Amino acid sequence: MLMTRFNEAQMNGNHVSSNTPTTSQRTGRSSRRSHLPQKPLLTPRSNRGMVGSRKGQLLEEQENSTSVPSWQRASSVPAHKRPLIVSAKGSSSAGSVSDEAFQRAFTEVPKCNVFSSKQLKDQISEACAVLENTDLDWSRRMIALKTLRSVIIGGGLDYSDFSEEVREMQAALLTSVKDLRSQLCREACVTIAFFCERLGLVMVHVIDALMPTLISLMQNSAKVMATSAQLALQYVVKYVCSARLLPHLQTAMSSKSKEIRRNTASLFLMALTLWESRTVEKNMNIFLECIKASINDADPETRRTGRELFMQLDQEYKKQADMLYKALDPSKQRTLPGFVSQSSSSQSIISERDALPISQRNAAYVLHKASPSYYSGRSTSDIDPGAVRRVTNRTVRTASKWGGPLQQVNGTPSTTQMRTSAAQRLSSASQKFVSSLRRVPPTPTNYVRSQPGSRSSSPASRFPARIPPRSQMSSRTKIQIDEPEDHASVSSDSFRFETMELATALSCCASSSTTEKKEGLKALFTIISSDKQVNEMDLKKIVERLTPLIVEAAHKLLQPLTDTLIALVRRYHEELNDWLNLLIPKLVNKCSTEVLPSNLEKYRILMEAVRTSFDPEKQLYAICKFIRDPVRNNVSVKTKHGLLMYLHDLMRGMDSAPSMNQSEVRQAVSKIFQWVDDPKNICLMAISEKVVCDMFHLNASDFTSMLATFPNDLKDRLQTIVRKNSFCLSTGNGINTNEARVGILETTAQINDFVDRRTGLPISSPRVSPQLINGLARSPYDSIPLRRASREDQSGSLSGYILDPQGFADDPEQQEELITKIGEELSLHNQRSEERQRAMSVLSQITRDNLFSLWDKHFKMIFLLLIETLKDSDENIRRMALKLLKEICYAQASRFNEFAEMALMRVLDACTDESKLVVTAAEECGGVLATHVSSATCRRVLLAIIKSDVGEPKIHIAIKLLTKVIESLSATELELILDEVAPPIVDTYNYVSSSIRKESVVCLVAMIMLVGEEHMAPYLSELNKGKQKLIDVYVKRMKGIFE
């Protein structure tokens, strides 16, 4: 009886164990019970207060410590039902695989020497066959995986066929990774990691298929499988630096499993650290989204990795880090290392009133004693000791982890001057709104105000809402001081761009109250007009808020709305080109339906600002896209008339000749005449004819090319309009009416000649063909003097225009001398920009006017010089070279076939240029190459680009050019190459980028319109029903347009 009570007392933990063995120990029960969790000693009542006082500290440290399972604490769960406790060594690493184990396994393979390509293929094929057969013994499959590694070690990489065999391993590796046996899965992960280390980007297609499975393995309960997948993915991210991995990782960040999210965040940190900056910058949106998700994650480890990601981002990409910082909640901003001093609300400081341990008070005192300005401007009684301790802990951790000095973590050195001009930023245009901003409860995260109390009512103790209360700014605050006496300019980051002001202004614009909308628009105008630069994310928010206001604008809102829009388009027109598709139709619609003269005048001023600010070519294409869209162009007759009037005014003011032979322009012209044919739209006839004549005068050569694509009845109709309006031209441009009349007759004759040549009529001369119109036989150079003398220099050489066109065309010696001078100028790369532009102007004239007859001798030299000029440092030279290539391709298309691949590759490279003007010229040049050069060559080059991993911009342009190649083919020709063309486009329809998916749909619709839905059905069956329905919708729209 006594021994039983003794044993119970010992089990309850109330008795100190002695060296005397108990009954249970003698009977062997200790071997089982020693693994059971022991109940903690009872806490004396006198000590319970101390435990309660440490509650806040425990809650604070819970973020950075491993959570203790409930069964490990004191509980009422019986001992025999509690799980066994395994020692720390066994529980944390039992069954896990280390990187050292992977490295050893790489070379622990049977010896295999490869002596020929045939032997290489046989070895790989045999191993893959074994791996794909899941009925075989698992040991044989493990040997097959080792054989794949031994092939590389034995010299398989020396053969060029090896890269082709890599794709054959995809199914075998996928089957092995999915296997339920942990050893086989581990061996497959080792093989994948080894292949990535040795092959790099060659593995990108295989890895693309394996990524979902590897990611799902990270949450596996078997440590062997989970850690193997983690290590394999680390090798993948380290050695296969491709943007195709990012969509899989982005999807993984939204997983329900915290293990997957935690490890994925670590993989993003690897990618951000190791990948080339070019790859990271092109996919920065994905990185920013995943860093934000990591910082906001529910898992503490994932949040910690997210903060490390942000620190790495801030070191490499300051601008993007600033954008991300602004997008975070204030509570999350305060958790970022190095940004502690930006706590903007005293509520965050007093949120936890836990006590400060004595052991940490000295460190906190030293920290803040080093920066006395910490207390300036605020009451020290409002400082919570817990917040001070948290600052200390976070500072020490950051300094020790990143090697930075302790005194620099809390902020940059205090500035000697504070700029106060920002306090009046909103006062000039919206005094009422400024006062309302100061009354808004949320405070910008940059400023700290004291807790409301007895001192807060004193005016002397309060700071203005826009002036920082202490001189030591945050480490995120960078004030750029140019001149000591210059107090008017503040850098874009000095006050973090007044994020709260912009957000409040936008929210006021969304209010249902007209007064609040008016004040919001005034504040928005002040922000846009200020010296600060609005970033792209904020511009997008502003545009999204202003677009609906254009439609619903009341009379009271019209003046502030037009002022804001005018300021926006005049300052940020280069960043808002994509907005034209919505802006111009909405403005035209409002202007067409407005009845009040005062409002109408405001809309006209706004439309004039839009017309003069944006690129005319962009506006032209935006209007044409709207006109051809069967969904959006269902508007009233007044709106249609307003659109055509806007187009007429736009083209009248254009100096340069845009490319007219574009699909958007062709379809828009067809749609305009469909409107005219409707009896309800009879009033559109006159303005439609003016628009056609404007297009003709802007770019006659492109217009004639476009004519050849129209049906005969529409082609005859357009030619009749040009002839009819030729005698009604305005003489306001200084040209004699008779000269203009003759010029129109000549150009109309050139249209007929061009169309006839397209239909296969013989050409009498390689340079100039006699034209026949209305019984008048003449040459285009017989009676018109060249009206370009104002650009000729005194010597007449390389002036940009030829003095005697007919004499030059008949004199080979003069041509030889001129082309030699042009070649000498073009060979001076990155020098004499004006002279080279003049040389290219001369070459453009003699090409366009068909005055040069020595192409057989000099074509290769001219072509190579222009290709080399595309690398010039001057963007105007690059753009002019592309336009010249386009004109030469028009005139000498057959000669381009020999150099088509080089030309296409260089033009596609130019499509990724930094200058938007160069990109536009490259797209136009590529479109001409696609329709004038051999379709087989273009198809081969473009498909190679589409299938490769060269980046989204090139793939997007390649699909667009392939669409033009397809449109130039007949149905019979397309049927023969359908197996070659259709599958890659179906694959790109599943691409991550929306622009590539959209272009893929256009390409697939073009194929369907040529060969019919029956021939395309086998290829489209691979798509899901939603995507197939979307294609059907576009096909029906296209059929409606053609009908």
Automatic annotation (TrEMBL):
It comes from the Eukaryota. One of its GO terms (biological process) is mitotic spindle assembly. Residues 7-19, 64-75, 407-434 have a biased composition (Polar residues). Residues 449-471 have a biased composition (Low complexity). SMART domains: TOG. Pfam families: CLASP_N. Residues 116-349, 811-1043 form the TOG domain. Residues 1-76, 396-490 are annotated as: Disordered. Transmembrane segments: none annotated. GO terms for cellular component: basal cortex; cytoplasmic microtubule; kinetochore; microtubule organizing center; mitotic spindle; spindle microtubule. One of its GO terms (molecular function) is microtubule binding. PANTHER family: CLASP, CLIP-ASSOCIATING PROTEIN. This is TOG domain-containing protein. It comes from Brugia malayi.
